[in-house]
Amino acid sequence: MNTNTLKAKRARPAEEPLIDWPRADPVALAAFDPTTKSCTMNCGPHGLDPRSREERKFLCDDCVPYEPSVHEQLRESLAREDALRAELAALRAASC
């Protein structure tokens, strides 16, 4: 029982056009601290994206500059106040 059936040929997927990924200046990227920006979108990599997470975050226009919470600001303010009080006490002790 020999039947001649034609096999369907698989179509080759169309090649995706190459994406021209914007790149960051290496000096500016080295000076960039990734903790200074918060991601508001999903800045995940594309499968062909050669850039690092830091570089994507540096170049992203949707990521916003990091702003400390009210609690962090209060903690920093109290620490500065304590340091100033200690400096003032040392100056008063030195002038006596």
How is this structure best described in words?
The protein has 96 residues and is mainly alpha-helical. It is built from 3 helices and 2 strands, in the order αβαβα. It has helices spanning 26-31, 53-59, 70-95; strands spanning 37-38, 64-65. The protein has a two-stranded antiparallel sheet. It starts with 25 loop residues before the first helix and ends with a helix. Keywords: Plasmid.
- Which strand order spans the largest sheet, edge to edge or round the barrel? 1-2
Following the backbone from N to C, one meets helices and strands in this order, namely: HEHEH
Proportion of residues in helical segments: 40-55%
Radius of gyration: 29 Å
* Domain module count: 2
Keywords: Plasmid
Which helices and strands appear, and what pairs or packs with what?
Blueprint: H1 26-31, E1 37-38, H2 53-59, E2 64-65, H3 70-95
Antiparallel strand pairs: 1-2
Q: Any key phrases for this structure?
A:
mainly alpha, 3 helices, plasmid, 2 domains
Brief summary:
With about 100 residues, the protein is mainly α. The chain has helices at about 25-30, 55-60, 70-95, and strands spanning about 35-40, 65.
